[in-house]
Amino acid sequence: MFKNVLIAEDHEIVSKSLRSALTDLGITIADKDYVFYCDDAFTRVQKALRDGDPYELIITDLSFDEDYPKQKIAGGRELIKALKEIQPDLKVLVFSIENRALIANTLFKELNIDAYVPKARHDAKDLKLALESIYKNKKYHSPNLRQKEEYLHDFTPYDKTIVSLILDGKTQKEMSGILKQKNMEPSGLSSIEKRINYIKTALNISNNGQLIAYCIANKVI
Amino acid sequence: MFKNVLIAEDHEIVSKSLRSALTDLGITIADKDYVFYCDDAFTRVQKALRDGDPYELIITDLSFDEDYPKQKIAGGRELIKALKEIQPDLKVLVFSIENRALIANTLFKELNIDAYVPKARHDAKDLKLALESIYKNKKYHSPNLRQKEEYLHDFTPYDKTIVSLILDGKTQKEMSGILKQKNMEPSGLSSIEKRINYIKTALNISNNGQLIAYCIANKVI
DNA sequence: TGCATCCTTACGGGAAACCGTAGGTTGGTT
DNA sequence: AACCAACCTACGGTTTCCCGTAAGGATGCA
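ok -> structure tokens follow
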């Protein structure tokens, strides 16, 4: 089983419980092996790497509460991205309250994580299975993820930009100018109109309010 | 210190940790004293009451994941309300990921809870303080609540109806008709226009998308 | 009763969004 | 070179939204 594991989790209660769960599995978690801030996690990994005793696995949450002094790395996503740059072979297990399959899949795809376990009713058992899987170099998708939701529309980066601009309170005409500035194509007012209309049709909704609600609910932005 | 405490928390990891934290404080948590479903919590309290050995305190989460078979009591709010009806003197400590002061205050006001502790960096210590406070019959507001946010605008039931209608994709003209049907005043198209505009000005935003985003972020609807 | 104030509503002009059409560009095929 | 398909964009008409003005109604007070 793993020897060097780091836990990045800002909720004390959860962190504590994770430690005892890992101890039960025969993994020793020293005081230096759990942190409450992303920045600390990064530092620890960096140091372990330099000391020639790198971590094999990090277990991390996705959302971290803000705190002062302001942290450089704000959340789990950014942390994983940063870690993969300095230690590409570091395994990553994400342990988060978020239980939408889509979110998890994105992480597997974009950040190449190794396991995703949602905090849920039987997460202790789930966690155990995940650890065993990734120890054998196998990815682990928790069965507790809410699979059903299917995307009616795949938001492209272009779409996301448009939605963000709506959120900024821009008019379509203003968007056209902004997209031209950014050299994003297409930037014609007409194209923007049509794209928004296309998305709404795909999602079967009729106004911007619903569009925003949908995007927020599905963490599109 | 408390003798009879019930824990309602659907995340196994958190539940486990809560138990050990309470044990550390000298509170015994038997297997019958923690549950993963609201319905079970209600049953336990009911039974304990009937057996003449009622609980003194319940520690409960707010949001519970859905599960099958479908539960009658869906969340912490409903649970607390139901419990207060059968045992008004039962003390309630809410332990939730939600850290907005406004949400907590509403619970103190409307459901007369005794303590609110957000899951956060130092929640173990926070929990301890809370338990000590309510044991002395004192309400406990966690200092970790995000206090700053002040409402720029208080959404009246009328406002909420309008926002809901926007979310339903209705036009303002349709809203006028619907409000007339519901006998809600004012129902004139002009009044609706002005109200929406007033809210937007108050929130310093310029389109419906932002309005919806604000309402979702602040759980107005 | 008369007057002031507040609220609701109707109306109208202008801006933005919606929607179809048609012209233009690009890139690939024959 | 001719053709075609896919895409972007400009344009115009309609609807919806935005916003100011003003008329009508209710209330309170002198």
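Residues 171-173, 193-194, 196-197, 208 of chain B lie near DNA strand D (CB under 10 Å from a C1').
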